[in-house]
Amino acid sequence: xxxxxxxxxxxxxxxxxxxxxxxxxxxxGMSRIYRCSSTVASSAKTQTQNDEPKSTSDYxxxxxxxxxxxxxxxxxxxxxxxxxxxxxxxxxxxLLEVTSALDPLEIxxxxxxxxxDFNLQVYQTILKDLELTLAGKEEILYEEFVAAVLATxxxxxxxxxxxxxxxxVDRVVIDLLQRQFDGAxxxxxxxxxxxxxxxxxxxxxxxxxxxxxxxxxLALYGNVQDRVDALFDVMQHFPQSQATTDSxxxxxxxxxxxxxxxxxxxxxxLRDTCQLPPGAQILKTDVKYPIQQYRRGAGEELYTRARQDxxxxxxxxxxxxxxxxxxxxxxxxxxxxxxxxKKKKKISSS
Length: 350
Prior knowledge:
The chain has 350 residues and is mainly alpha-helical. It has 15 helices and 8 strands.
């Protein structure tokens, strides 16, 4: 019997059993291969995830609490620092108010008491007489100044014409002498100084004539423009540039302008005679951390801030430009001022 005959003679159920067993073995092998492949792929994926760095969002979420509390702490620290800085500014302003020789109500009483007789026309006459009497002198004693002013006033309206509430003007000038010559009263014998309304002990020292005239303008009765005109006339009659000449010459008045150096000095005189509000005088110092510190600004600093805001650079000033300086927020003479010109075009000097 050949091979074909033997295979054909085998029962059909034998073939079916062998085929089924072979199929099961193939399935088991393929299953093991799939499981091995899956394990290898899963291990590779896990290793890749471990090797990759965490994203920014994952770091933020993992440290959300710390970031939140840090932000809250920064806000609280900023608010506390700002509050303490404002307290320093307020304390400096209150110190100026307490140590000021005159308060705003006294200045208002002084002007009211001298109205309407002590007006701009009388003040301008005093300037002309002083210019001739002093003949180029830059500084004089306060007592000499008072005598010259009263002589002109009595010549105009008689012996009874004087500065009412003159003791307030005296107080300002005596305070200036004591501040400028600190300790002079103790180091040398003081003199009895006769003022407009009192006789006080003061250092026997001279003061600049424009400074004394700025103090006298406290008593001037009139509106704000009258005071601006009076101070502008002071700078024209007693310019600092005149001090450089060897002999006295009448100042030229061809142009209605004044030099920058005279404007700087006048702002300083207004500061020293209680005619600038304390708030405008408070400036920031270079000490910013941990808390911002403040100080009283010098007259030149106040002027410089106003000039930069209004004009940029300037060498001469007209009457109107001087008025703008006095009314700027950085000078604010007599409390009459407007805000900084942040967006307006600044005027450059020609």
